[in-house]
Amino acid sequence: MNPSELHKLLSAIRSGQVSVEEGLSRLATLPFEDVGEALIDHHRGLRQGAPEVIFGQGKTSEQILRIAEGLLNGNNNVLVTRLDADKAAPLVERWPEAAYDPLGRTLTIVRHAVATTGRGPILVICAGTSDLPVAREASTAARMLGNRVEELADVGVAGLHRLLAHLDQLRRASVIIAVAGMEGALPSVIGGLVAAPVIAVPTSVGYGASLGGVAALLGMLNSCASGVTVVNIDNGFGAACAAARINRQEQP
């Protein structure tokens, strides 16, 4: 339940359109719901402005199905991250309207339109094609969190002219998510070109000395460009959450 839905319910109770007993029944599972191996946090939409997201990695298809069903019963849209194709198949069979992205390993079920709450576009940039899975996870999550999203791919520092050809788009963005592996230099370059906040996402892409993304992580943490902040390795979802909070419009 989000703040808008709670406001409507309380207003309906006050006007008599909904009885107190029915209101209590609908609020009974608001804090959380026990579905066996998971406690669904139905209160998260009120606290954070977005419902709980399912992290698919490590969960069985049956567990994901139960959690998704609980979220849908609570009138929430569903976002599942880190979801392999074999685990996605039962969800698509159960809910044909579900959209699965095998590249970003995300699945979405949209039961009600996502309201745009961002002040401006979030621009998701990735250095190379190999970074696209993490960038796509960030793009999908940012859209589900109510943002307009633009994307740029394969504009890494090995061919800097590719990035500089999009300076107008970079400067138009409200927040930039920069995804890169190898040495992770892209966010520093972008940070020196724009006034917008830059959220750097190191990926585990690279040869042996990249140490599974540690080299990119350390390079980004040591950026000399102001306004660059860093999330964990391959954490496109975390970058999207941070960008959405930065980009959120003030409520009237």
From TrEMBL:
InterPro entries: P2CMN_synthase_LarB, PurE_dom. GO terms for molecular function: hydrolase activity. One of its GO terms (biological process) is 'de novo' IMP biosynthetic process. It holds the Pfam family AIRC. Residues 120-252 form the PurE domain. NCBIfam families: LarB. This is Phosphoribosylaminoimidazole carboxylase-related protein. The lineage of its organism: Bacteria, Pseudomonadati, Thermodesulfobacteriota, Desulfuromonadia, Desulfuromonadales.
